[in-house]
Design a protein that fits this description.
The complex is a heterodimer of chains A (82) and B (231). With 82 residues, chain A is of the alpha+beta class. Chain A is 34% helix and 34% strand. Chain A has one domain (2-81): Phosphoribosylformylglycinamidine synthase subunit PurS (Mth169, Chain: A, 2-Layer Sandwich). The model of chain A has no long low-confidence stretch (mean pLDDT 95). Chain B is an alpha/beta fold. The chains are: A alpha+beta (82), B alpha/beta (231).
């Protein structure tokens, strides 16, 4: 089966997000007030596995081993069959 | 005694480190391309600065997963000194050889400037030639040098005397103003639990000759050489 996983990586709460802070400041220059801006990264991974459970396990391993740094990141996996 | 200088695609301080080791310190050193597996003949390793793999994913993330890092871990387990400078520090935290993580500077700008560092411990293979509390001048050049660790890790590092250097003013005081990147507790360099792995964001190889404005950095390399000779 073919699957597509959308992985979103975010900083853990309490960590600085300098890019978000900079964007917030730039928006203020344009007259938009926001309470907070957080940035995240999204990876789209296409893979083949026998079941969605196996695919999810594989992608979770990829996140643990490389895509995220578990010390500073939280991540979510959104998996669907394609 | 030969020190390995590990080169990844995108390393760019490798030749500076080689020059300092060979021409200034006067020890044997060799550039080692990351595809090499066997590092047994080397007594120590330095992972130099640069932008390995274009800082893709996170600074140091890709390099830290290359097979040569297994050989670096083996060297570390054998008690051999391993020093990571700048991108090398990022690679060492990403590989798990050092605690914490290095993230984007609090003000997200590439900062290339002189810093004052306070030597927090001289009980290590890299800092034995310094006096504890001494203030030295070494430049930084990075955008992802903001050292982060959770409170429990920071307090453990404190208890175990694993902070090697902090950013300070010229009098040796830790202040917010002299923290160039937002690092927790002004941390500029740290040691591993068994003290033979050190990572630091400042570049000692750029401050190892008087003509460059400071030669304080040379004592890190000399400490290493002395440690290797005494093993």
């Amino acid at each position: 089966m073919q699957y597509r996983a959308e992985v979103t990586i975010e900083r853990k709460s309490g960590m600085l997000d300098p890019e978000g802070t900079t964007i917030k400041r730039a928006l203020e220059h344009l007259g938009y007030h926001t309470n907070d801006i957080k940035t995240s990264k999204r990876y789209i991974i296409d893979l083949e596995e026998e079941s969605s459970e196996l695919a999810e396990t594989k992608v979770d391993e990829m996140c643990q081993k490389l895509i995220a740094n578990p010390m500073i990141h939280n991540y979510t996996i959104d998996l669907r069959e394609v | 005694m030969t020190i390995a200088i590990i080169q990844f695609g995108g390393s760019n301080c490798d030749l500076d480190v080689l020059h300092v080791l060979e021409d200034v310190v006067g020890t044997d050193a060799e550039l080692v391309w990351y595809k090499e597996h066997d590092l047994d003949k080397y007594e120590a390793a330095i992972i130099p600065g640069g932008f390995s793999y274009g800082d893709y994913l996170r600074a140091g993330a890709i390099a830290s997963r290359t097979p040569i890092m297994d050989s670096i871990k083996k060297m570390a387990d054998e008690g051999k000194p391993i020093m990571g400078i700048c991108n090398g520090f990022q690679i060492l935290t990403e590989s798990g050889l050092l605690g914490g993580a290095l993230t984007t500077n609090e003000y997200p700008k590439f900062r290339c400037e002189w810093t004052n560092l306070r030597v927090e411990t001289n009980d290590s293979p890299f800092t034995s030639a310094f006096k504890k509390g001494e203030v030295i001048r070494i430049p930084i050049a990075h955008m992802e040098g903001n050292f982060y660790a959770d409170e429990a890790t920071l307090s453990k590092m404190e208890d175990d005397d694993l902070v090697a250097f902090r950013y300070v003013d010229s009098e040796g005081h830790v202040t917010e103003e002299v923290n160039p990147n937002g690092s927790k507790e002004n941390i500029a360099g740290i040691l591993s639990g068994n003290r033979n792995v050190m990572g630091l964001m400042p570049h000692p190889e750029r401050a190892s000759e008087e003509v460059l404005g400071s030669n304080d950095g040379i004592r890190m390399f000399k400490s290493m050489v002395e440690y290797i000779s005494s093993r």
